[in-house]
Every structure is written in structure tokens, then in C-alpha cells.
Amino acid sequence: MKSEKERMLAGELYKAADPELRAMSARRKQILRIYNQTTEEQGAYRVTLLKQLFGKTGQEIYIEPEFHCDYGVNTFIGENFYANYDCLFLDIAPIHIGDNVMLAPRVCLYTAGHPIDAAIRNEQLEYGYPITIGNNVWIGGSTVVNPGVTIGDNTVIGSGSVVTKDIPANVIAVGNPCHVLRPITQADHDYWQAQRDRYYQE
After folding, report:
1. What's the burial of 74, exposed, middle or buried (CB within 10 Å: 0-12/13-18/19+)?
2. What is the CATH number of the domain that holds 181?
3. Number of structural domains, the chain?
4. Residue 82 three-state SS
5. Are 157 and 140 in contact (CB under 8 A)?
6. pLDDT of residue 202
7. Domain range holding 42?
8. Where is the signal peptide (predicted)?
9. How many Å apart are CA 30 and CA 74, to the nearest integer?
10. What is the distance between the alpha carbons of residues 52 and 41, in angstroms, rounded to a whole number?
């Protein structure tokens, strides 16, 4: 018979009120309690705590306190990651984040779901579907990413979006529900390259 943890990670119905899962949650609570009380002078210690918390990280990772998550160990983060204040990861199922990803304040990644049928939901059964975020992605403030969503490389998600379906690579997407506004073009590249050149010349 599968454990509740195995069911959870397989995207099947499971019950969170399980000793193994409660122990995982208690570990997360302890690390985050310490992390969220650290000061800006404790940068190296913050990185150490984050590496203990998550399943994997790159060498460069910075998360502004306060930060919250369900387990931590189910989140896998690439190089050069930044998350601003009050981000929240419900990592019931795995969250995979690529390299050079930036999250604005109050970005929420929700892998968790509950049955629509109230009788089943009241039995405390729940489930989770993975979230995958590609490389070079910027997600605007107060965005919610729902279970099972994949966001492609180089994409920008506008602030306040609710992402309910996959978003392709190389686009700007906005709204509730989040939809593609337009592709990111060579004109965008040329404009921002010119702005960068001005910065270094002045």
C-alpha cells in the first residue's frame, strides 16, 4: 500500500494528517521561523537555511523575508533566483524553477487542490499537480500560479495575473485568467539593449 507521501507526490488523493507529512511540515516550520527572523547582515546564513529547506537550489539564491511554503523539499530551484517579499509556495507536488527567475512581491505558487465534491473534500482528501517555471522568467506582483501549470522560457507574467493554463515561451501574458498578450520580439530586444547602452555611456 502506498504511503500518504507517495500518493501526494504522485498527484493522487491523499490525507495531509499523516505522521510522515507532519514531520516534514514541522521541519519546514522550524527552518522558516529562523529564516524569517534573520537580518540583512546574515546573508550567508540565509543561503544556508534555504539550501536546507529546498530540494535543490543553485549557488545564487535570494528570498526576501517573509517567505512561506508547505514543505520546501518538493521545490527545486536553478541558478540566480530572486523572490521579493511575501511569496508563498504550496509545494504539495513538485515545483521546478529554472535559472534566472525573478518573482515580484506576493507571488503565490499553488500546486495544491481540493475535490469539487463537498462530501469527498470533507473527508480531508486533497491532491497536488506540479508547477514548472522555465529559465529567464519574470512573474509580476500578486500573481497566482495554479496547479499543473508550466510557464515557458523567457516569458513575462503581468502583475495580478491568475495563471490557470500553460503559458508558452517568449511571450508577455497577463490577466485573470492569464492569457498571452503578445510575443516578445526583436524590437523589444533592440529597445532594451539601447537603454542598457545609454546606462553604461552616461
Report:
1. buried
2. 2.160.10.10
3. 1
4. strand
5. yes
6. 77
7. 4-201
8. none
9. 16
10. 19
Residue 44 in grid coordinates: 550567508
Distance CA 88, CA 110 (A): 8
Q: How far apart are CA 64 and CA 52, in angstroms?
A: 16
pLDDT digits (tens, 9 = 90+) for 63-99: 999 999 999 999 999 999 999 999 999 999 999 999 9
Report d(CA 94, CA 163) in Å as an integer: 17
Task: State yes or no: is 114 an active-site residue.
Answer: yes
Do β-strands 179-183 and 14-15 pair in parallel, antiparallel, or remain unpaired?
A: unpaired
Q: Which of 68, 96, 114, 179 is catalytic?
A: 114
φ/ψ (deg, to 5) at 174: -145, 165
pTM: 0.95
Torsion angles phi and psi, residue 44, rounded to 5: -65, -40
Assign 147 to helix, strand or coil.
coil
